[in-house]
Amino acid sequence: MTRPAIAIHGGADAMRAIPPRKQAAFRAGLACALEAGYRVLDTGGTSLDAVTAAVVALEDDPQFNAGRGAVYNTERRHELDAAIMEGETLRAGAVAAVSRIRNPILAARAVMEQSPHVLLAAGGAEQFAKRHGLALVPQSYFHTAERLAALRRIVKSRYGTVGAVALDRHGNLAAATSTGGCTGKLPGRIGDSPIIGAGTYADNTSCAVSATGWGEAFIRLAVAHEIGARMRYRGDSLARAAAYALARVKRLGADGGLVALDRRGNIAMPFNSLGMFRACVHADGRRQIGIYR
Predict the structure, then answer these.
(1) 77, 115, 121, 78: which is closest to 96 by C-alpha?
(2) CA distance 74 to 197
(3) Is 72 left (phi over 0), alpha (psi -120 to 50) or beta?
(4) Which of these CATH numbers, 3.60.20.30, 3.10.450.50, 3.30.160.20, 3.40.50.880, describes 5-290?
(5) Is 7 helix (H, G, I), strand (E, B) or coil?
(6) Are 258 and 277 contacting, i.e. CB atoms less than 8 angstroms apart?
(7) How far is CA 154 from the centre of its chain?
């Protein structure tokens, strides 16, 4: 029987001097999402259910840029992306540029389980979600004053994405990622989060990955798939493959980070930005929560 493990992230960007009280709030939010996912694993649940639970918790927490609290585009609207993937079967589902689905990760999972497709976008994804009983909300649900202020300042370094990777007792991996994108993005812009192989990937033969950062670079380099490919074809360790992929992102002049997990329970959480909201439960039960290095 495999010992379960899970790692989550809440985004990586230029986090300069976060006040102690706000750091404590972020850590509490990460801890809540981590426990939501780990409870599933600890009671014998699947990695797919675990990453879903963790990401739903992060989407519902307005501190993070996914679901409620997502950033605004240039038209002061929210367009959300999410993806999920199962390592055993390589099934995957994603939604992009949705504006009314309360929990985009649940819609991504519905696309995977209830349709023959991998990616649905915009209004078509919302109609699909409604037909499958998922909650739709008005645009005002996603609003927070902090995100609107960020748009007014055009803080383009604010990426923020949430994600989770998990290994269950059956030895199966899964990954999930959800995001509001980057502040002040053009309407219709889609980043790496819902792109299978770029920001989200899971394959039992290698690893599960959820990324965060400048999505265009992660798409161009197919970062999540690159990590798994280096493990399969070169025999790289998870840490070595993740470090190499992130170094390539840096060479493009981009920053970000990722969480990754292999079938042995090894966890990697590298980032090249000033900080990354991250947390994990190792296979031996050790818990770790961090923001800066």
Answers:
(1) 121
(2) 27
(3) beta
(4) 3.60.20.30
(5) strand
(6) no
(7) 23
Write out pLDDT tens, residues 14-67: 677 789 999 999 999 999 999 999 999 999 999 999 999 999 999 999 999 999
CA distance 154 to 149: 8
Residue 270: other Cβ atoms inside 10 A = 19
The answer to whether 48 and 138 have CB atoms below 8 angstroms apart is no
Catalytic residue among 46, 161, 177, 183: 161
Cβ neighbors of 12 (< 8 A, separation 6 or more) are: 159, 212, 213, 255, 256, 257, 271, 273, 275, 276, 277
CA–CA gap between residue 200 and residue 176 (Å, rounded): 7
* Residues making up the chain, counted from first to last: 293
- In this predicted model, what pLDDT tens digit does every residue of 122-156 receive, in sequence order? 999 999 999 999 999 998 899 888 877 777 776 55
Q: Which of 115, 12, 101 is nearest to 60 (CA)?
A: 101
Q: What average pLDDT does this structure show over 254-277?
A: 96
Give the C-alpha separation, 12 to 7, whole Å. Answer: 14
Residue 196 is given by DSSP the state B
Rounded distance between C-alpha atoms, residue 240 and residue 244, angstroms:
6
Give yes or no: 179 in active site: no
